[in-house]
Design a protein that fits this description.
The complex is a heterodimer of chains A (115) and B (110).
Chain A (H helix, E strand, L loop, with lengths): L4 E3 L2 E4 L5 E6 L6 E8 L3 E9 L2 E4 L8 E7 L2 E6 L8 E8 L9 E2 L3 E5 L1
Parallel strand pairs in A: 2-11
Antiparallel strand pairs in A: 1-3, 3-8, 4-5, 4-9, 5-6, 7-8, 9-10, 9-11
Chain B lengths: L3 E2 L4 E5 L4 E7 L6 E7 L6 E7 L4 E4 L2 E6 L4 E6 L8 E8 L5 E2 L3 E6 L1
Parallel strand pairs in B: 2-11
Antiparallel strand pairs in B: 1-3, 3-8, 4-5, 4-9, 6-7, 7-8, 9-10, 9-11
Classes of the chains: A mainly beta (115), B mainly beta (110).
Chain lengths: 115, 110
């Protein structure tokens, strides 16, 4: 079975550019999460969806960040405009079972470098 | 404020010995705790979990201990193997998305 698929794996961009990260969750999973990993803050939750509906976006750093889930098999995280402090590894994860807690299945991550 | 704390950024252990990774939490409402393992350039993968109604859960070489009164959990790996070298994340929840610690990098030396 395919796991969570993220693209791109690596993205290098210049400050001010728009960045779009993509995620395909595991089929049948009804929860999707976006986490960001940095040395300073570890793994922090940005936003999560249940049945394609955003439930909590309080972790999104600022208005430059936005996320969508147009259908059960696709989600995007967009940063516009990007800044050097956005450099991090962004993980998408999904799970099922009717609760937001539980074993999460992570993608391999998208490493973003903003110059 | 960090609700889940892993105070040791790194740990080195000799092959065959026991590795003990520690985690503290501040939110007494958490009722479910997990450990994830992460290799470089990969996503975290689930390792073991424990519910707050238990104080120990064992899976092969991995055992998680929970001390609710101290708000502390630990992961024991015995015997440690070179393939265990990775970053280990502690996570906690109460029917909410997992809150992760910053991770501890374990190096098992052959």
């Amino acid at each position: 079975d395919a796991g969570v698929i993220q693209s791109p794996r690596h993205e290098v961009t210049e400050m001010g550019q728009e960045v779009t990260l993509r995620c395909k969750p595991i089929s049948g999973h009804d929860y999707l999460f976006w986490y960001r990993q940095t040395m300073m803050r570890g793994l922090e939750l940005l936003i999560y969806f249940n049945n394609n509906v955003p439930i909590d976006d309080s972790g999104m750093p600022e208005d430059r960040f936005s996320a969508k889930m147009p259908n059960a098999s696709f989600s995007t995280l967009k940063i516009q405009p990007s800044e050097p402090r956005d450099s991090a590894v962004y993980f998408c994860a999904s799970t099922s079972g009717g609760r937001a807690a539980g074993e999460l299945f992570f993608g391999e991550g998208s490493r973003l470098t903003v110059l | 404020d960090q609700q889940v704390k892993q105070n040791s950024p790194s740990l080195s252990v000799q092959e065959g010995r026991i590795s003990i990774l520690n985690c503290d939490y501040t939110n007494s409402m958490f009722d479910y705790f997990l450990w994830y393992k992460k290799y470089p350039a990969e996503g975290p993968t689930f390792l073991i979990s424990i519910s707050s109604i238990k104080d120990k859960n064992e899976d092969g070489r991995f055992t998680v201990f929970l001390n609710k009164s101290a708000k502390h959990l630990s992961l024991h790996i015995v015997p440690s193997q070179p393939g265990d070298s990775a970053v280990y994340f502690c996570a906690a929840s109460r029917n909410t998305p997992l809150v992760f610690g910053k991770g501890t990098r374990l190096s098992v030396i052959a």
